[in-house]
Amino acid sequence: MAISLRNLSVDYSLPQGTAHALRGVSLDIEKGELLGLVGESGSGKSTVAFALMGLLANNAKVTSGTATIDGKSFDLTKRNATAALRGRGMAMIFQDPMMSLNPVFTIGTQLCEVLRRRSPGSDRKARVGMAEDALDKVKLSNPRRRMNQYPHELSGGMRQRVVIAMALLSEPALLIADEPTTALDVTVEAQIMREIIGLRDRIGCAVLLITHSLGLVTEYCDRLSVLYAGERLESGTVRQVQRQPGHPYTRMLFDCEVPIDRERQADASENRFTVISGDLPDPRRRPPGCIFNGRCDVSFDDCAVINPGDYPVGNEAEHRARCLRLATP
Amino acid sequence: MTDAISISNAQLRFGETAALDGVSLAIPQGTCFGIVGESGSGKTTLMRAVLGLQKLDQGEIRILGNPLVHSRAALKQRASFIQPIFQDPAASLSPRSRIRTLMNEVGTVLREPHAAMHERLRVILNRLGLPPGVIDKYPHEISGGQARRVAIARALLMKPSILIADEPTAGLDVSVQGDLLNLLQDIRRSDNITLVVISHNLAIVRLIAENAVVMRAGKVVEGGEVGSLFKSPREAYTRELLAAWPGVTQSKPTG
Q1: What is a single molecular function from GO for this protein (chain A) (predicted)?
Q2: Of the candidates B182, B202, B241, which has its C-beta nearest A273's C-beta?
């Protein structure tokens, strides 16, 4: 087991009260595996990444949670618990590559910085060579010229490639990619996902892909976890979850996806989009019972009272979902 | 019937780059028209040109048969029948004024009595699923989905016959996105509005638009009726766009 996250709970203190952004979230990622963490805005998926990286805002508090990375255990409730891993054991790709790049330094300087931190003894020439090599590996054209360019001289897709090259150089055990392609075009998105997979294959790291796009997850990930209002509702391999979603929320999310091959019908009423009606529950006061009760289309009386456990779906060992229907058919 | 919007040979350069390079298209009245393409393909520039916010170097734009004139008076007059919904709704709402102030400006422009305008607004808000209290809020107090609805409400309040939506679903969750698109389709039909949807999301354009064009580097690569355009694209670029789309590929379970 390369990476495991156990029972992560995070609170945000807001002027209106305390928001419980995450409640008891656990994840496991094997080495060389791509785990997709899917959720809508407000589900807390970025909070998972920030808690792991130790980048939470000042008003956030980790109330419980341990992370095991490469055999070492970290108590996430402590401030800067994973500081030693940042840049070496863990790397992160943000939605906005400018979050990771300093506008006043050249690409080359920033790539060499990563190497200097990782292996302080190496000489400068070797570092420059490795940095150029990394840019070449992420298929950035003309690496030597890029080394002397500043981030603003590159397009969004090229900047994201530079950030992936940085991750490549730091050889992390865990790579967290938080909506890495949301700001990019579809064709560039496909290229960037290929680079992330290439990086995974090259250094055999575990990848946590945080996204709101089920399409991206089903296309590129090995396993997926579904997050809703701070709770993990389902997890399993992409194939299992796609074939038989264990939680109604997952099924409804799949139904909302518009397939590219869906054709327009002459009858306008046939061209409707599927929606999930209702709103997210108030993160300050968790209602009793199932968190998805109220928006669910198959709920029954017990759903409002009993908080469901994590039940296995079908006979598959790794596929689990938090839905009472699985325990009481 | 005259076309809602017709553009012939639109040319526009920003320095070295050709933002629009000989774009010609016609959008029939009462239809939904899709403009797809990557960032930098000129989709938004084209929209700005149609709204009269951007002068062309060459070429002609006609709206409901009338050539586009660049003057303050013409711009103001045009606002009563062609309305935009900008990509970033928050950017089209002033952070310093309540939504009520924004809506009141519509009344000023239309010279409509305050009470009558608010009565219409009440109906529109209700239809968009916005609580009436939303008009007393500041833009930062509402969610992204709501902000987009407010932008639509403002546009509808002008009683336009043409609505141009630039990336209407960018940044929205799938569940919210569907809701908004259903709403736009309903409004278009009930009010007989010509709807132009600019998007890089090919799947939604395929479903809501009757005709569409694919743009790249300021040129219209290919266009036509969406069914044939997406089923048997003639251009390699259109095929590439379609292939790059990450989709839930496998067949879904039933029930």
Answers
A1: ATP binding
A2: B182
